Amino acid sequence: MNVSIFGLGYVGAVTAGCLAELGHHIIGADVQQGKVDAFNAGQSPIIEPELDDLLNSARREGRLHATTDAAEAVAASDVSIICVGTPSLESGRLNLDFVRKVSEQIATALKVSGKAHVIIFRSTMLPGSTRTMVRDFFEDLRVAGQIKIYYCPEFLREGTAVKDFREPSLAVIGTHDGLAPESGEAKQLLGGTPAVLAWEGAEMIKYSCNYFHALKVGFANEIGRLCKFLGEDGTRVMDVVCADTRLNISRYYMKPGNPFGGSCLPKDVSALKSFARMEGISLPLLENTLDTNHAHLDQLIKLIMSKDKRRIGLLGLAFKADTDDLRGSPMVAVAETLIGRGYELRIYDPQLNLARLIGANANEIQRRMPHLASLLKQSPCEVIEQSEIIVASQKCARPDELASAARADHCVIDVNGWRELKTLPWEYEGLCW
Ligand SMILES: NC(=O)c1ccc[n+]([C@@H]2O[C@H](COP(=O)([O-])OP(=O)(O)OC[C@H]3O[C@@H](n4cnc5c(N)ncnc54)[C@H](O)[C@@H]3O)[C@@H](O)[C@H]2O)c1
Q1: Is 14 close to ligand 1, i.e. is its CB under 6 Å away?
Q2: Residue 269 has pLDDT above 90, yes or no
Q3: Which CATH number fits domain 2-199: 3.40.50.720, 1.10.260.40, 3.30.200.20, 3.30.720.210?
Q4: To the nearest whole number, what is the mean pLDDT of the chain?
């Protein structure tokens, strides 16, 4: 393929070298003459293992050229990959000026030439940015079928960028409607087995990854600071933590849904937080972990109240399915708040047998919800039939039971990703989707 690459920085230069290695013809475009000259001399404009050799070979074999002229780059290619910088403004906001400029240049060149083209945005941009670029520069060309536009985030790491390009850790293609790409160029050029989402989903994946990486580094460093204070080896502690691939390095706690609760997480986070405070160790992530959980719970309560209906049914009350442990359960907090505000409540939880609750569990419910017995129903259908809003926190009913009780005037709030609920005849809203 003939490919133009806009922006010959870390991402663009590596993409150019690696695509040239695969036999594609590359024309690089950059506003910096020095980078263009380096490319045309077969030299890498950045330090990156293997890249000089790749660019040098490509140049010798006549598969690499660079220019400062955007129109020339568009004219010489069938696909344009946009890798220009998206730096932060002084305020922290994202600066999309370079992406806008390149978009405008490519659109102008395509309008003049009338040629078919594929545009792949690769710069990191906030969700909604690709759609904004399309709206502002490309919509008529796209609707006319002259161009196809994809957003494909880049996940390479400087220092191992060439290796990462050859074996991508993740491949994502964003399309305008989230359906399979209309053509194969993005997959063919960028490799991997891509997940396909709408532009906004693909943009969100890039930010989710980097947010997660930043969070992991912050977390490991907070553990490290605590360990140093305790005279422990933070690296060793984290090595052992990472050895648990069932609960720690896994998908287990990685599903948006219920706030955390139960008898351990809130208590242990609280204890560690007050210990760090007492010892004067600054741990802002730990400090704010309970707050983010409260914010999530508040959002659920606001969502329920926004529906302007008074009869609420809760499916699931314990802090998670298959337990009768009510200690620290977020759904108990939801129930308490709703009762306090005069809502009518009905609850179904298949594991809950009040006669069998003992000890701290029984005390907690006696203290927080002394009338629980009168709210508990024997079947999910009873709850559904007598409620206007159903808050589904656990997957605690069979689909056929739900289907028999579902009515179009019900509103269902799905807290926990119980996607079958969406298919039934009622108004459906997920807490996180
Ligand atoms: N560096 C990384 O490791 C990495 C990894 C993944 C994603 N990203 C993202 O990829 C994008 C590029 O990052 P980078 O590190 O390669 O940036 P960079 O600053 O190294 O390079 C950007 C290049 O774009 C050029 N440019 C600016 N305006 C231009 C225009 N109108 N026409 C042509 N070229 C123009 C600049 O001169 C520069 O050479 C950013 O959005 C970044 O967040 C970077």
Answers
A1: no
A2: yes
A3: 3.40.50.720
A4: 96
Q: In the chain, what are the domain boundaries? A: 2-199, 294-430
- CATH for 294-430? 3.40.50.720
Is residue 11 lining ligand 1, measured as CB closer than 6 Å? yes
| pLDDT band, very low/low/confident/very high, at 152 (cuts 50, 70, 90) | very high
Residue 175: beta bridge partners?
198
12 lines ligand 1 (CB under 6 A): yes
15 touches ligand 1 (CB under 6 Å): no
- More reliable by pLDDT, 400 or 130: 130
* Ligand 1 centroid from CA 111, angstroms: 25
The mean pLDDT of 228-246, rounded to a whole number, is 98
Structure-token match 């505000």, residue found: 341
For residue 67, pLDDT beyond 80? yes
Look up the pTM and report it: 0.94
How would residue 62 be classed by pLDDT, with cut points 50, 70 and 90?
very high
Smallest CA-to-CA distance from 184 within 81, 111, 79, 77 is with: 79
In this structure, what token pair is assigned to residue 312? 């609420």
**Burial group, residue 39, by CB count within 10 angstroms (0-12, 13-18, 19+):** buried
CA of 122 to the centre of ligand 1 (A): 9
Alpha carbon of 198 to ligand 1 centroid (Å): 23
| Cα torsion through 44, 45, 47, 51, rounded to 10 | -20
